[in-house]
Amino acid sequence: MEKLTSIKEEGLSQIEACEDLAQLQQLRVLYLGKKGPIQEVMKSMKDLPKEERPAFGQLVNEVKTLFANAIEERRAVLEVAEMEKRIAEEKIDGVDWNNGLVSNINRSNAGGIVTLDVGGVNIKGTEFRNIFSLRSANVEISQENGNIKMSVKGFGHGVGMSQYGADYLARQGKTYEEILKTYYTGVEIENR
Questions:
Q1: Pairing status of strand 121-124 against strand 113-118
Q2: Which of 44, 111, 134, 141 has CB 3.0 to 4.6 Å from 129, enough for a Cys bridge?
Q3: If we measure between CA atoms, which residue out of 109, 123, 118, 125 comes closest to residue 160?
Q4: What backbone phi and psi angles, to 5 degrees, belong to 36?
């Protein structure tokens, strides 16, 4: 238990002090990976008396959850800092950031941004997505207390099919036709 406490304190300190996303990823792998110190502690569980194992396992899981949450919180802070830096450095022809960040947002039927005005210049939603390294063009943009908030919905390119969901269905034994019909109801698949 002392070793786990030591790992927790050292790891959380390193996560809090982390200054960039690459280093944070290395810490995630170090502490939550298969060869990390938490896994090493888990291996020692076999040496404990049977009646102590459930409590110990629960404690280890709590530490893993604590690490995962701390990493995600730090990632959010670092991503905002990186985005602010990119906004300050970003040069889009004709854009004057003093004209406001965004306006005139045009969306697809699925909710993704097709076009919008950024700093007074009309650009494609895909370009906006790339500038800010967003995982999707389906993003809600708001301003609160002088801060810009972007809430991204989904992953991908707005075609309506989740790669993770399709992969899960495939692992459950579904055929490609069954997977396509799950996402695109009412379609007929023809061989030509």
A1: antiparallel
A2: 134
A3: 109
A4: -80, 175
Closest alpha carbon to 32 in 6, 69, 79: 69
Query: How far is residue 51 from each of residues 38, 46, 48, 177, measured CA to CA in Å?
Result: 21, 11, 8, 50
Copy the structure tokens of residue 132: 């800010």
Task: List, in order, residues 6 or more apart from 100 with CB less than 8 Å away.
Answer: 119, 120
Tokens 């906006």, residue?
128
Write down the mean pLDDT value for the chain: 82
| Of 45, 50, 15, 48, residue with least CA distance to 30 | 15
pLDDT of residue 89: 65
The rounded distance, in Å, linking the Cα atoms of 89 and 53 is 53
pLDDT tens-digit readout, 19-69: 988 999 999 999 888 888 988 888 888 888 999 888 888 888 898 899 989
Q: Letter for the amino acid at 123? A: I
SS (H, E, C) 84-150: HHHHHHCCCCCCCHHHCCEEEEEECCCCCEEEEEECCEEEEHHHHHHHCCCCCCCEEEEEECCEEEE
- pLDDT higher for 52 or 131? 52
pTM of the shown model: 0.49
Q: What whole-number distance in Å separates Cα of residue 122 and Cα of residue 104? A: 9
Tokens 């999707």 belong to residue:
136
Q: Which helix (H) or strand (E) holds 142?
A: strand 139-144
CB atoms within 10 A of CB 95: 16
